[in-house]
Amino acid sequence: MPELPEVEVVRRGLERWVAHRTVADTEVRHPRAVRRHPAGPDDFAHRLKGQRLGVPARRGKYLWLPLEDTHQAVLAHLGMSGQLLVQPHATPDEKHLRIRVRFADAVDTELRFVDQRTFGGLSLHDTGPHGLPDVIAHIARDPLDPLFDDEAFHQALRRKRTTVKRALLDQSLISGVGNIYADEALWRSRLHYERPTAGFTRPRTTELLGHVRDVMNEALAVGGTSFDSLYVNVNGESGYFDRSLDAYGREGLPCRRCGTPMRRRAWMNRSSYYCPNCQRPPRARP
Questions:
Q1: What is the pLDDT of residue 227?
Q2: 253-280 confidence digits (pLDDT tens)
Q3: Domain span(s) for CATH 1.10.8.50 in the chain
Q4: Contact call for residues 181 and 5 (beta carbons, < 8 A)
Q5: Which residue intervals of the chain bear CATH 3.20.190.10?
């Protein structure tokens, strides 16, 4: 699934092409694409008509388009294969086009939601005092958020008594980090994914957060990580941070630091990639 850098790339594209435009009409071509909008496709399209979209916002992996004249927002779930594309009207419809949004003040382009696997979708939600959709109010700030509290995160790590990769993927502790960037940050930190967090010192937490931020900023600079055509920006272009990955997907290849063959282990219905020499597993307790 797309992680913070990929979602932020999409958000920036939407800010350029969609912000402050007025919706002329919305066409829902597949009901599953609005299944999180309980009132159904017709209501979703009706309530968007005439609305002026604000500046797109993001928290972690979650992206939304605020409606400027209401306390509501369109929340986008990209899921496994969701894409928000800005396309000229004349562009042929994509095979898996699910929603089309036309604008009254953009005669040449439209917004399309394309989703091959139909796990994602768009939905309309009320927003709180800070513009955050109510359904994601429980999501923690992400490490690139200026208001992210490093000390609070450190204390939460020690209280949680979990392992470090589980903590990085816990969206109630820190948002936006998924499997790819967790493995990358742990490799840079020389931490095994099963290292307990209860014994983390402040310097250790600070170092880990620094590597999380570094790897995400580096990915952002090159458009994120695209292993296939499903992860693209609003213009349909793929990112290429996959060329710079040090851990994820490198099973059997030499560690870029010590030369030891990288390993992959099944972990929580996912895979963890690590160097057995640089990232030694924690000692088993007696």
A1: 47
A2: 999 999 999 999 999 888 999 999 999 9
A3: 150-274
A4: yes
A5: 4-136
The set of catalytic residues is: 2-3, 61, 270
For residue 70 the two structure tokens come to 């209401």
Amino acid at 54: G
Mean pLDDT of 113-125: 93
How many Cβ atoms sit within 10 Å of the Cβ of residue 155?
Answer: 13
Take residue 198 and report the two structure tokens written for it.
């209860």
Distance between CA atoms of 26 and 44, rounded to whole angstroms?
8
- 4 burial via Cβ count (<10 Å: 0-12, 13-18, 19+): buried
Summarize the confidence of residues 102-120 as an average pLDDT: 90
Q: Which two tokens stand for residue 138?
A: 């429980």
Rounded to whole angstroms, how far apart are CA atoms 93 and 54? 26
Say yes or no to pLDDT of 284 above 70: no
Q: Does domain 4-136 have CATH number 3.80.30.20?
A: no
Class of domain 150-274: mainly alpha
Angle between helices 202-221 and 4-17 (to 10 degrees): 50
d(CA 227, CA 225): 7
In this predicted structure, the answer to whether residue 217 has a pLDDT above a threshold of 50 is: yes
* Whole-number Å distance between alpha carbons of 199 and 162: 10
